[in-house]
Write a structure and sequence with these properties.
The protein is of the alpha+beta class and about 325 residues long. About 25% of the residues lie in helices and about 20% in strands. The N and C termini lie far apart (about 100 Å).
């Protein structure tokens, strides 16, 4: 019995044991159904500690030693001489791309996967979520570099493999990320994009929906007072493209989607007033070239009048129920 106690004591203290493997106590031989004397037993309740999260530096090291992280342990010895995922020059860039794609964030120097990353892992096949395939590909590329393989054959095999993976993914149904920002115009998720002027948020329904918002610390700034798209459109009388309705609180206007489309004689982008969710498109009854535009009277606040965009000299026309009070025969709706 003492040998059993020594053996299990050794197992519990194995990490702190500095003795050679040869000094491990051996158990006495016992046969099936043989009686043994029970002396004492204890149940220890322990909590499994998860491995520490990667930092940028530890993930770089893990990418070098990819054989340690493959799912198929039979590959570990084969890939031990593999140079890892990426190269010294590209590994840091790979991590940065994961951050920019909103798959990784940094919290107290540790890399933490986002909900988007968890969604990707959930819907993608194992070939793309475990490093086994990537490690094998890297190993084959190393062999090709050493003149031991054919590059064309390798690429051809990868193309076929990608086609099979895409066919599988297309059959998956993808739930909306619970953290996704929903477009107020069409209900589709908003996406953070980068332009020459910096980051902004655009609707994933583009080009059917062209709603955008400025970026504020990685999130769309929807609270900033600005017009937003309602999703309603009408044909533009100037260029034939779409006039899009924009709203701010109770105010509404119609603006051409083409910023280069200008109202005749004006440098402004084509904008028309709104009346009952329709653009008010009225040609000037005097010159026939300009459009009648609505403005508030400075002398009589709360009263509105209409003026010609071509500034042909026509006297202001008073507003009546949201449209210029001119004879119907001169009005084009």
């Amino acid at each position: 019995m003492q040998n059993y106690i020594k053996y299990f004591s050794y197992l519990y203290n194995k990490e702190a044991n500095d003795e050679d493997e040869q000094s491990v106590p051996t158990l006495p031989e016992v046969s099936e159904q043989e009686s043994v004397l029970y002396n004492e037993g204890k149940v220890k309740e322990l909590v499994t500690t998860p491995p520490k999260r990667f930092t940028d530096s530890t993930l770089l090291q893990a990418m070098k030693e990819i054989h340690k992280y493959v799912r198929d342990k039979n590959l570990a010895s084969t890939l031990k001489d593999c140079k890892g995922i990426g190269t010294e020059a590209t590994r840091a860039g790979i991590i940065e791309q994961l951050k920019k794609a909103n798959l990784l964030t940094t919290e107290k120097r540790f890399l933490v996967p986002t909900n988007t990353a968890f969604m990707a892992i959930k819907i993608l096949p194992d070939e793309l979520t475990y490093p086994d395939s990537t490690a094998v590909w890297e190993n084959k590329l190393d062999e090709i570099a050493e003149g031991k393989g054919d590059f064309s054959s390798f690429i051809g095999a990868q193309v076929e493999n990608v086609k099979k993976i895409l066919a599988t993914i297309k059959q998956q149904s993808i739930a909306t990320n619970k953290d996704a920002v929903i477009c107020p115009s069409c209900g589709k998720p908003m996406i953070r994009r980068k332009s020459s002027n910096g980051f902004f948020w655009g609707c994933s329904g583009y080009p059917n929906c062209k709603q955008t918002f400025p970026d504020k610390k990685g999130k769309p700034d929807m609270e900033k007072k600005r017009f937003h798209l309602t999703g309603k459109t009408e044909p533009c009388p100037n260029c034939g493209k779409q006039l899009r309705q924009l709203a701010l609180d109770k105010a509404k206007i119609w603006m051409c989607e083409d910023k280069n489309c200008k109202i005749p004689k004006l440098k402004n982008t084509t904008v028309f007033p709104d009346n009952d969710d329709k653009p008010v498109i009225v040609r000037c009854p005097s010159c026939g070239e300009g459009y009648m535009l609505r403005a508030e009277s400075k002398k009589s606040p709360g009263k509105f009048y209409w003026w010609c965009s071509a500034k042909c000299g026509i006297k202001p026309v008073w507003d009546k129920d949201g449209v210029p009070d001119i004879p119907k025969k001169n009005e084009e709706r």
